[in-house]
Design brief:
Chain A: It holds the Pfam family CT_C_D. Chain A: Keywords: ATP-binding, Hydrolase, Nucleotide-binding. The structure holds 2 protein chains of 2 kinds. By secondary structure, chain A is α+β, with helices and mostly antiparallel strands. Chain A contains 5 helices and 14 strands. Chain B has 2 domains: 165 residues, no CATH class; 110 residues, Cyclophilin (Beta Barrel). In chain B, the strands form 4 sheets. A 7-stranded mixed β-barrel of chain B has the order 12-19-16-17-14-13-20. Chain B has a 6-stranded antiparallel sheet with strand order 7-6-9-4-1-11, with no helix packed on it. A 5-stranded antiparallel sheet of chain B has the order 2-3-10-5-8. Chain B is elongated, with a radius of gyration of 20 Å. Chain B starts with a strand and ends with a strand. The chains are: A alpha+beta, B mainly beta. At the A-B interface, strand 1, strand 2, strand 3 and strand 4 of A face strand 15, strand 18 and strand 19 of B.
Chain lengths: 244, 279
């Protein structure tokens, strides 16, 4: 039995938007992922689906769609039980971050604003597991939920024109990693040597929505090593399976 | 190879786009004005997804090193082949050494150069469309060489057509977006009666409109966006996402352009005037 009231809205000529209750919750995300598995099980060609927090955007690439027909299909799939065999596997990834001042260009300021020592700030940032609630904005950019309130800090007043690839930032209720060089207004506290988006890899983005991330503090030397290992393709962050 | 002697303002290779990767944040990309590029590929009897050159505002100077056939469409940028004017929607034979160059922009904003068989650049994640960081290069530069197949002779079924350009409309057809209902009566009146001007901030990612309407304080969780999504900022600015636009966003999505209207907007430039028309 499904417990959430869902809303299905047309979104232009080829897409629909499905919305779950307006909250950031792991159980809602799990329900969205179950729905996606049920839909994928039908093997209907031409659909693309992308999750962000409490919503799922479904785009049909083949043709303009008949909203009423699609709505019925979605409700049918939503009512279906998903067999454990087809459920997607979820993982907890350990993602290394170097918090040295060279990378964490705002870490001193952030530590002052939050009233935490740099050591305590790093400890808090690395001792939580963050849920991947969506991937978007930039290729490979993860929307992470679960930041402790003690690390909530407003966005910078003036965004930077260029934030370096791998930069790890804090902004309001979010923490995240810039997968490419990009303009950005987050407070930068470190840098991650792992490539999060590689268009030439078999899986361009190894993290999936529903996975969890835990950061691990590394030294500058380890950072350089992982960077080189990554370039020659022999480094992959550690993962463990999460049993849903 | 087609040699880029001079690259022009912003020239890229585009096909119909990159599908299947929006779940990892990769935009669709592809030709901004799909209607124009499809017409040129149709006349060349190409696959509709054949890669063409998208030429924004000012044209490049290009030299062919193998014989083939080309067809231009979209914006009229006073194109000449060896100094002889050529028109849109004519299949034109080119020979080794021929030089295609462009002049004044007369109509529209994005021209297309389609070639028999399509440009043979690398396919990355299922598409040849240029978009960094998926492709290494953002656009074509002076001295670049673009691969194409040689075609000695071919007789087109139709070698030329007269087409009334589809982009002369000064209105955009829109559907209600997911957050349409947050618009007050006053905002609705403004949005559908005001004439909006394309601002200087317009590119393949988004078109910002200069005029604002009364703002809002609606906050929402980040959610999916599409090409043609009209985002409404708290300050009352309207931003229309285009083909390289981000796949998610946090601003209310009040309107959604029809696909044909995305093509219309793709041919508008800074200073052009538009209205919204609900379908």
């Amino acid at each position: 039995m499904k417990s959430y009231p869902i809303t299905i809205k047309p979104f232009g000529e080829r897409a629909v938007l499905i919305e779950w209750p307006n909250k950031v919750e792991e159980s809602i995300l799990a329900d969205i992922l179950d729905f996606m598995d049920a839909f994928k099980q039908r093997k209907i060609q031409g659909w693309e689906m992308s999750v962000a927090y409490n919503s799922l955007t479904m785009v049909y690439n083949e043709d303009h769609l008949d909203f009423e027909e699609v709505k019925k299909l979605i409700l049918d799939c939503y009512a279906e039980q998903v067999s454990p065999a087809i459920k997607r596997k979820r993982h907890l990834w350990t993602i290394p971050v170097c918090y040295d001042l060279e990378f964490g260009i705002d870490i001193e300021e952030v530590s002052k604003t939050l009233g935490l020592s740099i050591e305590e700030l790093i400890h808090q940032h690395t001792s939580h597991q963050y849920v991947v609630y969506g991937i978007g904005f930039l290729p490979g950019f993860m929307y992470l939920g679960g930041l402790p309130t003690s690390l909530e800090i407003p966005r910078r007043a003036e965004p930077r024109l260029a934030v370096a690839k791998g930069s790890v930032g804090l902004a309001a209720k979010q923490t995240g990693i810039y997968p490419q060089d990009s303009p950005g207004g987050w407070n930068i506290i470190g840098n991650c040597p792992v490539t999060l988006f590689d268009p030439n890899a078999k899986e361009p983005c190894f993290v999936k929505v529903g996975d969890k991330i835990q950061f691990e503090k590394i030294s500058k030397a380890e950072y350089e090593l992982h960077k080189i290992e990554g370039e020659v393709g022999i480094y992959k962050p550690e993962k463990v399976a999460l049993d849903a | 190879m087609l040699k880029v002697l001079k690259s022009g303002f912003f020239v890229t290779i585009q096909d119909l786009g990159r599908f299947g990767y929006r779940d990892i944040g990769v935009p669709i990309s592809g030709a901004m004005d799909v209607l124009s590029v499809k017409k040129a590929n149709l006349l060349l009897e190409n696959d509709p997804n054949a890669a063409a050159m998208e030429i924004t505002m000012t044209g490049p100077t290009l030299q062919f090193d193998e014989p083939t056939y080309i067809c231009l469409s979209g914006a009229h940028i006073s194109a000449t082949l060896n100094n002889q004017p050529i028109e849109n929607y004519h299949v034109v034979k080119v020979d080794k050494g021929d030089i295609l160059s462009y002049g004044r922009l007369d109509d529209g904003f994005r021209g297309y150069l389609a070639i028999k068989g399509g440009f043979q650049t690398d396919v990355v994640l299922g598409s040849r469309s240029q978009f960094v960081p998926v492709t290494k290069k953002k656009r074509l530069k002076d001295g670049d060489e673009v691969k194409y197949g040689k075609m000695l002779s071919y007789s087109p079924i139709i070698s030329e057509v007269k087409i009334e350009e589809h982009f002369h409309k000064n209105y955009l057809e829109v559907y209600k977006g997911p957050e349409f209902s947050i618009l007050s009566d006053a905002q609705l009146t403004e949005i559908f009666t005001k004439t909006f001007t394309v601002s200087k901030e317009n590119n393949r990612m988004a078109y910002q409109l200069s005029e604002t309407i009364a703002g809002h304080s609606h906050s929402m969780l980040t959610s999916g966006t599409l090409p043609g999504t009209v985002q409404f900022t708290p300050a009352g600015k309207l931003i229309v996402l285009m083909k390289d636009g981000q796949t998610t966003g946090g601003y209310p999505r009040v309107l959604q352009l029809s696909e044909d209207s995305i093509c219309t907007l793709a041919q508008k430039k800074s200073g052009d005037k538009l209205t919204f028309k609900l379908v």
